[in-house]
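Can anyone check this?
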Amino acid sequence: MRLKERLERLKEMPPEQRMRFIILLIVGSLAVFTVGFFGSIKFTSRPAFCGSCHEMEAESVTWSISSHNKVSCIQCHIEPGIGNFVKDKVGALGQVYLHVTRQVPDKIEMKKKIPNDVCLTCHNPFRQVTASGDIKIPHQKHVLDIKATPYCVDCHFNVTHAGIARREEAHQSHQKLQDLSNLKPGEFRPEMATCIGCHTKNNVTVTCNACHREIKNPDSHRQPDWKVTHGQQALKDWNQCLFCHDIIAKGQAPSAQERPLLEAVRGNPFCSKCHANKPSAHNETWVLTHKNQARLDKTQCYVCHDDAAHKPGVSSTASVTASAPPTAKPVVSCDKCHGRVHVENWIKLHPSTVKRDGTSSCFQCHQAPSCQGCHTQRGVEKS
């Protein structure tokens, strides 16, 4: 039946019947709209819906293996209150537009941080300990007592999504998503660098026992020969050593960027406390005999000494001998002696210099056997 015919029949109805029909039609339309509206709200509020867009696959994967995988997206990402809920849903239409028009940026970041009130709907601000048992964090001081109250997510930015935005993960390949699904629990915990950085900035103590209940030396440090063998271990991963013996001691936030060995060791008070003393091998004859050791391995030499002619890649430990920054000054430069260059035809000219000045300057670099070997080979008589 056509619409025109239906309208004609509606006009022919008695007034009371026509009014009932119109009311019934309005109520039915409102019922259908209401069911559809709230049904769509409920459907679009489910984590499964959020993860259905490929732009959010990384966030969905990390959420699913986090400690918050029983908490829906809207519980954290929408502030409490019906007004905030409606505002967010209206704003989400803009996200739908970006998705449909394929204008979603590769790196998805929140425009504002999640307020502490959202976290405190579930978490107690008077909590003193963590699940690990070793860390003691007075949350009350951080959340309620500090004038410039930090956001919970300043410390716990990776608690649900493993800091996926900071990882700069874009539209994920299947392999990258697989890697994310295998993340360890440690990837979701606060980073020590965050604590140290904030404490240092606000002049708060960074001593170990301020946050840790129990601190113990690593097993390797308790070995009887550790003082003798630690150097070889340090060469393998000196940045790990610096975590305790330099960075934390100075109240600095640990950095993911590795530091060259020279920068790491020189000027480090912990290392220089012992290593500032000359090794026992550096006796009165060392100036003459050190070349024998240097020919075998210059690695240990370049920890304290520099050679302007030396460049990374010369030895088998190129990364160890990389150029140090200006702050990493050598104890004595090799060029102080080895930078001296004899003039052309020095072999022929040097006898007159030796007769005039003597041999004291020669033996600053050369040993007596060097002279004897050359003179014997060339049949030169001693004068």
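Reply from J.R.: I decoded it. DSSP finds 20 helices and no strands in the chain.
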